Every structure is written in structure tokens, then in C-alpha cells.
Amino acid sequence: MHSSMRVIAAVAVIAGAGLFAAGDAEARRGSKAKEAPAWLNAEGEVTDSSAVEAGYGETVTGVNGWEGEITGKPAPDSKFTQLQIGMPMKQVTDIVGEPTDQGVYVTGKAFIPFYFGSDRHRYEMAYKGQGRLIFAGKGWDSGGNLIWIIHNKNESGYRE
């Protein structure tokens, strides 16, 4: 075999091994992603609302095309089951009542110049024995629309 052919063959073997290793790493990441996080028990119930991460729940499209997520299983007789992603905050509180605790925080989008979208801040409501509701809004006074329902029958009702 000519020396340049050997070099090409060696490069092909090394590249193939690299692709194989990359595929293995991707498979390992995929299996890790399927592992249940510490805040979710084997039955799919949320055990710690404050530690919940996006991406583990069911992604849904709701009212007026709003996209959101529903995580965990509802508590027995939960009023959260009457809610839909995209509902305005006032409509939600008319259905489930006032929260045990609530708070607001800005998102990174609030610092993007000329960004006028709806996710500049998040408004979080905690309901004892029910879970938490997260709303996305444009401004502090707009309330926002429901984008995330976190079911947790053991919710303390207080944001930690």
C-alpha cells in the first residue's frame, strides 16, 4: 500500500472511532436524560416544587397558541386540572382562588434591548397541597399568562 493511502486509511479509522465515541457519548447523555431527577419520584409525582426543572413535564399548546409545560401528577380533587396553559392570571385566580404565597422575578429577556415579548418576567404562585403556577408577562403590572403548571400534592405553599 502506498504511504499516502496508509495515511488516508489511518485518518478514516481515527475519524470513524471518533464518530463511534461521539455516538456512545450521545447515547450516554440520552440515557442520563431518561433518569428521574431527585425532585420527581418513581410514580411521576413532584416531591420538591422549588427544585423542578423545565423539560421533564408534558409540553402542551393551550389557549390562543400559548405553549407551556405541565409537570407532575395532580393532587386528588385539584383545581389545577381545570386550568389551561395560556389562561390570564385573573381567570386562573377566579378558578383556583388566591395563592398561599407568590412572587415575581425577571428573566434574561428583560435585558434584551428592544425585546417587547411576553416573557420579560415570571410570576409564581404557590398553593398549599396543590403545587405551583408560573406565569409569563411583559411588565410588572400585566400579570401574565399561565405557562407552567407544577402539580405537587405535598406543596408547602411557601416559596423558599
Topology:
Blueprint: H1 3-34, E1 58-61, E2 67-71, H2 89-96, E3 101-106, E4 121-127, E5 131-137, E6 145-151
Residue runs with pLDDT of under 50 for 5 or more positions:
3-32
Provide mean pLDDT, rounded: 76
- The proportion of residues in beta strands is 15-25%
Calculate Rg over CA atoms: 23 Å
Structural category is: alpha+beta
Question: How much helical structure, as a percent, in the residues?
Answer: 25-40%
What characteristic shape results from the CA principal axes? globular
How far apart are the first and last residues' alpha carbons, in Å?
A: 69 Å
Number of domains: 2
Supply the number of helical segments. 2
Oligomer: single chain
Q: Let me know the number of strands.
A: 6
In order across it, which strands form the biggest sheet? 1-2-6-5-4-3
- Name the helix and strand elements from N-terminus to C-terminus, one letter apiece: HEEHEEEE
Largest sheet, described in full?
Answer: 6 strands, mixed
